[in-house]
Amino acid sequence: MESSLVQLGDALESSLAGRITASVVALGELTVDIRAADVIDVCVALRDDFSFDQLIDVCGVDYSHYGLDEWQTGSASGTGFSRGFNAVTHGRGRDMKQAGGDLKHPARYAVVYGLLSVSKNRRIRVRAWCPEDDMPLIKSVVEVWPSADWFEREAFDLFGIVFEGHPDLRRILTDYGFVGHPFRKDFPLSGNVEMRYDAGKGRVIYEPVSIEPRVLVPRVIRKESGREGQTDA
Questions:
Q1: What's this model's pTM, rounded to 2 decimal places?
Q2: Number of Cβ within a 10 Å radius of residue 183
Q3: 104-116 burial, b if ≥16 CB within 10 A, otherwise e?
Q4: Going by C-beta distance under 8 Å and a sequence separation of 6 or more, which residues neighbour residue 68?
Q5: How far apart are the C-alpha atoms of 24 and 37, rounded to whole Å?
């Protein structure tokens, strides 16, 4: 299986010279990276020349602070509960500023396409990097695979990725008056607004969220304390 994926990756790099920026086989899957500007050309070639006739999924990814680990609770160290007091990543509170950290990827946002070739019984993941972090923009592939319609709307709703040329790009999961994009890493866990029914007005009203962020310290096993198997609060 892995050898056939490697061969497919080599064939793609040969056929789409200059458009494939990276190719890797891992966990039984082939992933190729492309630029947002090349998404239509690459997708048409994958459909017509490599028989990837089905689009299984389109999803957004926010790589902000990807791979940073704040919970180091495997031992009784002074950094075990650092997440509650020394912010490493962002998003836990409404007023929390974005923490520092180096981005190890070409951009903050990417769009991932899962493709299936029924006739050849193989799959591929295509990852396209959005060039602008402030305004992630990429061309819609609805004209290539009509099934992309609702998938792109979902990625727009949750990540704020704009799909240029989409016939009806609007929210699909959140409410009409929803503020922000909830799957972005800097979106507060408590949200921006809350809703309740107002008996006086006879309708549901929206207000700024009143939940105060709080830290829940987990129970951990302190291995080097000599009391393995016991838990401390």
A1: 0.77
A2: 17
A3: eeebbbbbebbbb
A4: 88, 89, 101
A5: 21
